Amino acid sequence: MSFDWQPLLLTFRLAAITTAILLVIGIPLAWWIAHTRIRLKPVVETLVSMPLVLPPSVLGFYLLLAFSPQNAFGQWLEQWFHLRLVFSFEGLIIGSVIFSLPFMVHPVQAGFQNLPGSLLEASRTLGKPDIVTLFRVLLPNIKPALLSGAVLSFAHTVGEFGVILMIGGNIPGVTKVASIAIYDEVESLNYAAANFYAAVLFAVTFAILLTVYVVNKKLKAI
């Protein structure tokens, strides 16, 4: 029996792009949250953590409304950037970045907060700019947190269902990722195909998490 690999390839492509974007925006955001003392910090922390407790269908519903060409934001994107995010791969990326944001920010934020303040003070005393201190002093000392954030974000994106179904639907080659394919095959009573997709996702996520635990153990032992 032959299986369609496209949903799996689309899933891993979505997870890789989402993780790369989250590394770019999650590290500075985690740094800012770890060190800022402004009164609005609890509000920002709450917004970042909302995807942890919010039902995915709720987040997907509001993203669907926001991205729809029938509403102001969707019209603005289409008129100025010729970009339609509803039922598109680009829309899945934005939804995945928002939904997986806490899985990147929280481990990295904890890594920054656990660093001794003397590291930052010593670098500043030597006249190093903060950006140099971040990349050459702080980030190398939170490698386990960075690895955890990246892997959790990747694995969480691989398992997304509700947000993707709401804003992406089920378009083969565009938005039909593996989790949607499993649901689709079960609905069609094609359990062999559903088992194939589920088994691959199970094996990949198990291997990813096992790698994180092994590598983190080695990094902490150094």
TrEMBL record:
The terms describing its cellular component in GO are: plasma membrane
Example GO molecular function term?
A: molybdate ion transmembrane transporter activity
Its subcellular locations are: Cell inner membrane; Cell membrane
Which UniProt keywords are listed? Cell inner membrane, Cell membrane, Membrane, Molybdenum, Transmembrane, Transmembrane helix, Transport
| Membrane topology note | Multi-pass membrane protein
Q: Name one Pfam family in it.
A: BPD_transp_1
User: Can the keyword Iron-sulfur be found in this entry's annotation?
Assistant: no
Segments passing through the bilayer: 12-34, 46-65, 85-105, 196-215
What InterPro entries has UniProt attached to this entry? MetI-like (IPR000515), MetI-like_sf (IPR035906), ModB_ABC (IPR011867)
Question: Mainly localized where?
Answer: membrane
* Residue ranges of domain ABC transmembrane type-1 in the record: 8-212
Role, per record:
Part of the binding-protein-dependent transport system for molybdenum; probably responsible for the translocation of the substrate across the membrane.
Similarity field: Belongs to the binding-protein-dependent transport system permease family. CysTW subfamily.
User: Mind telling me what this protein is named?
Assistant: Molybdenum transport system permease
